[in-house]
Amino acid sequence: MSAKDVLAYGLSIILILFSVNLIIGYQVWDENPEMREIPSMSLDGIYGSISVGQTFVSRYNGLSRIDILLATHARNNTEEVMFHLRDARARYIAKISINATTVTNNSYYAFSFPQIHDSKNRIFYFFLESPNSTRANAITSLFTPYDSYPDGEIVSVNIEPKPSGDLIFRTYYHWMSFSYVLSDFAERILGNLVFFFPLCFLISALIFFAVKLHFNGRKIFVRRYRNVVVSS
Amino acid sequence: MENTNRAKYQKIVHKPALFLRATVRKLVPESVRPNISTIAKYLCIGLAIRFFLMPITLLVFDSISVYFTAWVAEHYGMYDFFLYYPLAYPPLVTYIPAFFFRIYEIFFPGFFFQKHVVFAPEGYPTLYYNFPYANYTAYQTLMSDPQVFPFLFLAKLPSLIFDLGIAFLLLRIFKDPSKSLLAFKVWILNPVTIFTIYMMGEIEIIPLFFAVFGTYLMYKDKPKIGILSLGLAAAMKPLALLLVPLACIVLGKNKTTKRTIKLFLIALIPLVVELVVWQTVSTLHQGFQLIVYEDNLLGYPRSAQLTNWLRFGVDYSARVYTYEQFIDVIYLFPLFYAMVLSLTIFSKKIDRSKLWHLFTCIFCLLFALNLFHSHWFLWCTPFMIVFFVMADGKKLLRLFLLINLFYIFYTFYTWELQFALFMPITPSIYQQPGAITLLNNLGVPGIQVVNLARSAFSGFLLFSGALSLKHVYLGNQSISDLIRVPKTRGGDE
User: Fold this and answer.
1) A213 closest CB neighbour out of B41, B48, B394
2) Does any CB of chain A come closer than 8 Å to the CB of residue B408?
């Protein structure tokens, strides 16, 4: 196996991995990663006039799904639970109704809705309520008592004492386009030309020398080598 | 006019080019000089790839902490900072990037961190609360700084020196120039080196260089300096400690036990000096106490500061339970290590020329049977390259490439090792899903696929380990020769 094969092999692996990632990754996972490390607590339950929700900022356009970490108190709950999504002006965006029997204990539940095309940098608010549930027949939501999500906060109604911190949730978006990444990078390169111009020159020079050595390497080096041999 | 142009050309292009060529000549041994154009070509390609990746990728969670600690070491002295930054690297290795940062400060006062540093209420410098644990909001701010590109380029530059150091060392190991050239090419272009050093930004290459250099010196029959260099590597990264007993036994073979002990003591000098310097300082001792405190939080009992290293060494190992209702556990890596150590002690065939094979075996076993942090695998790479090239030339390198391929699957475990590496390009890219999520989205059970690949990876490593052992103890004898031996003996009797 020649070194060319090694190079081709390495590059093809990288290319394949990135292509696969680009093709199949149609959603953005916007969980706050630090949340995973922080201990969570559960609320008493979502029932009667109690509702619990969270404000958040959409990072990209195309918001289309929110996953919330729910718990069942390890029992079979049967009533209907409603998910509401509203924007900063309390305008209705989405309303989803699920049955509590479909909720798995200590697992994320996905609430999907039609994508919001202009969601980037907008403040949203979602909340869960279940008027027909009772304390003994109600699911609950998990939250962190710390401010682990600085862009929003937990919002509760009729819960005493009022919980502080954040619900544990993930937001999903339709694919952040490759052109977005490129345009962002191009913008940053243009803002840092003093560094990137010499770097590009250096890389180009190295590639140029590599190509030149590939075709004329012997002419450049062998003559000198002969001289060394003769002189020694 | 023509003469003036020629003089300018001589001054600007020709003379520096001649100087560069003369330097490269000194680095390249006589035996491979006829191939110097090939070496230069691959060096250019390797450097171009490295320079391209250096400013635009980083494993922020791990590497920014290392760089910041080096910066603090450079700014605030050597004693107080470990009180607040319980890092996995021993203190000594931090001072190498710190030395380079001192040089950069001459040209760029403040050097990146100056404008980001804040002081905690306790008075110590930090980047954000709860340093160095993951806080991606803070990382996003850091990565949004326009100066992050030159910073990363310069911060990774020390690693490049040690990386090239290993590349040129590989040229000197083999007598056959074609083998030297092959080892050089594979090192320069192999994806593990590029991924761990330049994409992740780890400083693992610094202790690794001293380990490889030490092995090279021992191989060239300079045991004392060699073992000291290996000891230096162990003082920078305790992983190298695994190699020290084996090296001492091999070098002390056919000589007195006193010599083996003497070599062992020489190897421990850097480690002891490091421990004495840092342990006698009370603030550092408190720093270690902080680690112990963290262990308490994680449910580990309060114990000595070595808890961390024991956890890496033992708890990371695959294990077998002898009886589920009794606490009797056999850890597989220590088990195999003990077996290799025994073989080394009792084998008469082993000598210093087999050190590369022996070390390859140890690292193969380690990574096959242990949980490990992705960048640790770099330790296996140079030894494996030397063993494969030494043993079988080009043929075994296919196995090396296969191992590298499955290593990529191993990195799928952590979402931080995929898109998140490109945070300097677009800071919010860390929110992209990791490989396991993407596989799950496809309807493929991601974690099972990755675990399957991990099992294959371990299989290939175990095979390589067994192969290296075969080369150590049987040389070029085949297994069938070995099987025939007892028969002949039986017949004679």
Assistant:
1) B41
2) yes
Q: How many CB atoms lie within 10 A of CB B94?
A: 26
CA A198/CA B369 separation, integer angstroms: 45
> Chain-centre distance of CA B430, in angstroms?
25
**Helix B136-144, helix B148-173: angle, nearest 10:** 90
The nearest CA of chain B is from the CA of A144 a distance in Å of 15
pLDDT digits (tens, 9 = 90+) for A24-75: 444 444 444 444 445 567 778 899 889 999 998 887 777 888 888 888 888 8
Q: Which residue has the tokens 């040089």?
A: B103
B413 shares contact with chain A (CB less than 8 Å) = no
Instruction: Give the gap in angstroms from C-alpha B131 to the nearest C-alpha of chain A.
Output: 12
C-alpha angle with apex A103: A101 to A107, nearest 5 degrees?
Answer: 160
What are the tens digits of pLDDT across the range B3-54?
677 776 666 667 777 777 777 777 888 888 888 888 989 999 999 999 999 9
A181 and B429 within 8 Å at the Cβ level: the answer is: yes
Contacts of A181 in chain B (CB under 8 A): 422, 425-426, 429
Using 50, 70 and 90 to split pLDDT, how confident is the model at A145?
Answer: confident
Query: What secondary structure, in 3-state letters, does chain A show?
Result: CCHHHHHHHHHHHHHHHHHHHHHHCCEEECCCHHHHHCCCEECCCCCCCCEEEEEEECCCCCEEEEEEEEECCCCCCCCEEEEEEEECCCCEEEEEEEEHHHCCCCEEEEEEEEEECCCCCCEEEEEEECCCCECCECCEEEEECCCCCCCCCEEEECCCCCCCCEECEEEEEECCCHHHHHHHHHHHHHCCHHHHHHHHHHHHHHHHHHHHHHHHHHHHHHHHHHHHHHHC
- List of chain B residues whose C-beta atoms are within 8 Å of the C-beta of residue A192: 146-147, 149-150
CB B63 within 8 A of CB B132: no
SS3 for chain B is: CHHHHHHHHHHHHHHHHHHHHHHHHHHCCHHHHHHHHHHHHHHHHHHHHHHHHCCCCCCHHHHHHHHHHHHHHHHHCCCCHHHCCCCCCCHHHHHHHHHHHHHHHHHCCCCCHHHCCEECCCCCEECCCCCCCCCHHHHHHHHHCCCHHHHHHHHHHHHHHHHHHHHHHHHHHCCCHHHHHHHHHHHHHCHHHHHHHHHCCCCCHHHHHHHHHHHHHHHCCCHHHHHHHHHHHHHHCHHHHHHHHHHHHHHCCCCCHHHHHHHHHHHHHHHHHHHHHHHCCHHHHHHHHHHHHHHHHCCCCCCCCCHHHHHHHHHCECEEEEECCCCEEEEHHHHHHHHHHHHHHHCCCCCHHHHHHHHHHHHHHHHHHECCCHHHHHHHHHHHHHHHHHHHCCCCHHHHHHHHHHHHHHHHHCHHHCHHHHCCCCHHHHHCCCHHHHHHHCCCCHHHHHHHHHHHHHHHHHHHHHHHHHHHHHCCCCHHHHHHHHHHHHHHC
With b for 16 or more beta-carbon neighbours within 10 A and e for fewer, the B67-88 pattern comes to bbbbbbbbbeebbbbbbbbbbe
Average pLDDT of every residue of chain B: 81
Does the pTM of the predicted model rise above 0.90? no
Residue B126: phi and psi, rounded to 5, are -150, 175
Query: Is the separation of the CB atoms in B90 and B236 below 8 Å?
Result: yes
| Planar angle of CA A118, A124, A127, nearest 5 degrees | 140
Nearest CA in chain A to B150: A195
Residue B169 clears pLDDT 70, i.e. is over it: yes
As for the ipTM of the complex, it is 0.82
